[in-house]
Specification:
By secondary structure, the chain is of the alpha/beta class. The chain has helices spanning about 15-25, 70, 105-115, 120-140, 145-155, 160-170, 175, 185-195, 210, 215-220, 230-240, 285-290, 330-335, 340-355, 400-415, 435-440, 495-505; strands at about 5-10, 30, 45-50, 50-55, 80-85, 90, 95-100, 220-225, 245, 250-260, 260-265, 270-280, 310-315, 335-340, 365, 380-390, 425-430, 475-480. The strands form 4 sheets. Strands 1, 2, 9, 10, 11, 12 and 18 form a 7-stranded mixed beta sheet that branches. A 7-stranded mixed beta sheet has the order 7-6-14-15-16-13-17, with helices on both faces. It has a two-stranded antiparallel sheet with strand order 3-4. The longest helix is centred in the first third of the chain and has 23 residues, at about 120-140.
């Protein structure tokens, strides 16, 4: 008899979400995590005494467009979300600023008052592309087989307008904004948010990263009280409450194979058997290290991981951040989009292509201690500065171990003019450059999306053709995580989709009998 029905490799949020659905359906699940802290890139630690730092994703936006939290009842396992509104704040060097609120009406009114005509353009942009955004969301919540994709596209919310929409959909997102807006101060934050997926503003066929924007107003943004890692802590509690096991500090050494089927894993020299193995590890980790060489698919060698693209400087401050353009606390609640214009984003990407860190980086600043007093001591602040673009492989004769302090200082220097006095209030820090991300979080070449988010590695091509249905080419081996559809970010769709596939394969019972509310066959 196997030790488990399903063994899950890794305890990132998608792996834990899939494991929670499986455990909730009555299957015996065992999760094995390499690190001593579960959660992968969705984890939180006390890095500086009294200050809690997230180690990866911080803004919970995408998961709020899914039913994951409700279906798994995660509030019963300690997950408490704190709403963040405004959603975005953009300060400018000349002292100007703008807000994007959860309320579309308030956002439109403020934009119209500040930049006549731009509020109306924003309303038109949202109305034009909301159906497309909802269709993409629906696709993200399904297994990306050609039949499903075609059915959703044909009968989805954009079906009647696809001829009109297609030229815009195929455009670079950095240019698409010109179809709606005149004011660069409105264009820049929209483009900078779209750039968070990785591809630069000039790359063709990237406009969907911008056209997703209307859904920000629908799902909003929130933070788990206690840190981003409270999501994965709640998921682990859910798994355990349903009879599963979650083991930290237990690195999987290999996936065991008998005949042409994955049969389990080896951990610390001991073999554990299961009916199925679900890998939430990076696709390269799964296919080029954990599997026996004879079972490594040739397509895995062609995966494009890229050359990193971002770095984050996490800071403990003795006082709250105050923006020169808007000193009030409202700015601290939002994601703070610090990018002067599109040219700054493009120039930073040029530095990246030359193999050097961005000389003038655009920044996303986060001060979630504004809504969560558990993150810092009284009067203190946590400030996280995500900046782009930063190559993993640097130009010759340079290494991250040598230049990390210099680059961290340059990011803080770039931020200081927007919030004077920040540098003087720093009491502790952590700099997560691309090499750090690879060493500590297993993010190959520092890519937080695992694989590049380009059209040739999306939908049925993620991670590669023949493995996009969450089933690996090897029988009994399944996949989840950012290496699979729909990619990176704190969404959980990959975990939920993978669970549906596994549940279908593990049992001949109808899917609706497996307590997976809202799932479609």
């Amino acid at each position: 008899m196997p030790d488990y029905d399903v063994i899950t490799v890794g305890a990132g949020h998608n792996a834990l979400i899939a494991s929670a659905y499986l455990a909730q359906a009555g299957y015996r699940v065992g999760v094995f995590e390499r690190r001593d802290v579960i959660g992968g890139a969705v984890s939180t630690v006390e890095q500086v005494p009294g200050y809690r730092f997230d180690l990866g994703g911080s803004a919970h936006i995408l998961i709020r467009l899914t039913p994951v939290v409700e279906e798994l009842g995660l509030s019963r396992f300690g997950l408490e979300y704190l709403e963040c509104d405004p959603l975005f704040f953009a300060p400018y060097p000349d002292g100007d600023h703008l807000f994007i609120h959860r309320s579309e009406e308030r956002t439109v009114a403020e934009l119209e008052a500040k930049f006549p005509g731009e509020g109306e353009a924003y309303a038109r942009f949202l109305a034009d592309w909301r159906p497309f955004a909802r269709t993409v969301r629906d696709l993200f919540l399904q297994t990306p087989d050609p039949l499903t994709l075609g059915r959703t596209a044909m009968f989805g919310k954009m079906a009647k307008d696809w001829r009109r929409a297609l030229p815009s959909i195929l455009a670079p997102y950095g240019e698409l904004v010109d179809q709606y807006f005149r004011e660069e101060k409105v264009k820049a934050p929209l483009v900078w948010m779209a750039a968070q997926s990785g591809p630069p503003p000039s790359e063709p066929m990237t406009s969907p990263f911008l056209l997703w924007h209307p859904l920000y107003h629908e799902g909003g943004m929130a933070r788990p009280r206690g840190g981003s890692g409270m999501l994965t802590q709640a998921l682990a509690q859910h798994v355990r409450a349903h009879g599963g096991e979650v083991h930290a500090g237990a690195p999987v050494e290999a996936i065991t194979v008998e005949g042409e089927r994955a049969t389990g894993v080896r951990v610390a020299g001991q073999t554990y058997r299961a009916r199925a193995v679900l890998s939430g590890a990076h696709a390269l980790e799964t296919f080029t290290r954990l599997l026996p060489e004879a079972h490594r698919p040739p397509a895995a060698r062609r995966l494009r991981v890229g050359n990193g693209f971002g770095a984050v400087l996490r800071l403990a401050l003795e006082r709250p951040v105050r923006y020169a353009a808007h000193p009030g606390d409202e700015a601290r609640v939002a994601l703070q989009l610090v990018a002067r214009d599109r040219a700054q984003v493009t120039a930073a990407y040029g530095d990246y292509l030359a193999g050097r860190p961005a000389q003038d980086p655009p920044i996303v600043a986060m001060t979630f201690s504004a809504v969560d007093d558990t993150l810092a001591p009284p009067g203190g602040e946590v400030l996280w500065l995500w900046a782009q673009y930063y190559p993993y492989q640097l130009a010759p004769r340079r290494s991250w171990d040598e230049i990390a302090d210099e680059v961290a200082a340059s990011i803080l220097d770039a931020f200081e003019p927007y919030a004077p006095g920040t540098k003087a209030s720093v009491v502790g820090s952590l700099f997560q450059h691309p090499l750090w991300l690879e060493r500590e979080l297993g993010l190959y070449r520092g890519n937080v999306m695992h694989l590049e988010m380009t059209l040739d590695q999306m939908f049925t091509l993620r991670p590669f053709l023949g493995a996009s249905s969450y089933r690996a080419p090897l029988r009994g081996l399944y996949l989840t995580g950012a290496s699979t559809h729909p990619g990176g970010g704190i969404m959980g769709a990959s975990g939920r989709n993978a669970a549906r596939v596994l549940l279908r394969d593990l049992s001949s019972r109808p899917l609706f009998g497996l307590r997976l509310p809202g799932a479609r066959a």
